[in-house]
Amino acid sequence: MANKLKQYFPMIHERENLLRHIQMTPTLNQQFNSWLPCYQKEFLDFCTGARGVKILYDSFFKEVLNPEYTPERLNRLLSILLRTNVRIKYVLPGDSTRIADEGSLLIMDIVVELDDGSLVNVEAQKIGYAFPGQRSACYSADLLLRQYKRVRDRRKELFSYYEIKEVYTIIFIEESAGEFRRYPDNYLHYFEQCSDTGLKLNLLQKYLFIPLDIFDRNIHNRDIQNETEAWLVFFSQDDPEMILRLIDLYPEFKPMYEDVYRLCQNVEKVMGMFSEELRILDNNTVQYMMDDMQETIDNQRVEIDKQKLQLADKDKQLADKDMQLANKDAEIEQLRQLLAEKQK
């Protein structure tokens, strides 16, 4: 299969040559040997075309869909996902107002401003967060406040809330949490606020969740049906057969893969990028375990509170029964006294 990919991308490394280059370069050899065997294999596989590259890794995403150098690619992706034509105006720093301790959880994160002033935060998660709704609402609120401050500072006394535009939070999830698995046939979840009366107000915050693992299960053993699915295959699939099929159906993806394999020619750079991705994944896994433990603790606390209520209810029932028995004893004693009086 690597030979088939190499027909499309002649610059792909030969495995033996790549290994020889790493082993003959002390710094690269030391770095390579510091990885677990599974990561060594993953690196060799995508550099030699045995498997595809995981495009959603932050470094690779920003190389292939860099909004400064190839804006038309990210413009097209956002237009497809937001279902309207958009054009990126600026790339904004992604860490100035973001909740600081959450940054390490992401494998990719980028913030852009569109031509109409809207802000879009595109991020990818290796493992789906616990509490995805709460977290995304906090990020969206942070993004909205960020826009408000920028517009207010620029317009000063001329500021109007009419100038505040929508903020979009688009989240790709490689391994989704339980909430999403309850919808095994859906892999595009759009959210926005609405009233229960039909009243229309633009509350600005909109969300799109894309569980890629559920998409993979849906597209298994069937063909790519539209451009949205083509993009999701590009982000989720490392199977060479699927990559070749994608390129045959949508040739515009071929230059993106060429950029990836051209990047892989610079072994020092791509090893450094891969090492950084592994560090982020380690942090992600640790945080996921912490979240999972916290969720378990919270669930146990709720269960304990329920049990306490049940025990309190049983104690009350016992106290009521004791009171009833005491009343019965008092009645019996009164009857005995009456009986004794009558006998006397």
Distance between the termini: 111 Å
Average pLDDT score: 84
Tally of strands: 6
- Assembly annotation: single chain
> What characteristic shape results from the CA principal axes?
elongated
**Order of helical and strand elements:** HHHHHHEEEHEHEEHHHHH
Beta-strand fraction estimate? 5-15%
Q: Give the fraction of residues assigned to helices.
A: 55-70%
* Uncertain ranges: 96-105
How large is the count of helical segments?
A: 13
Describe this structure in words.
The protein is of the alpha/beta class and 344 residues long. It has two domains: 52-265, no CATH class; 289-344. It contains 13 helices and six strands. It has helices at 2-8, 15-23, 26-33, 37-48, 58-64, 71-82, 132-155, 178-181, 212-219, 227-236, 240-249, 254-263, 267-343; strands at 88-92, 108-114, 119-127, 167-175, 189-192, 205-211. The protein has a six-stranded mixed β-sheet. The longest helix is centred in the last third of the chain and has 77 residues, at 267-343. Residues 96-105 have low confidence and may be disordered.
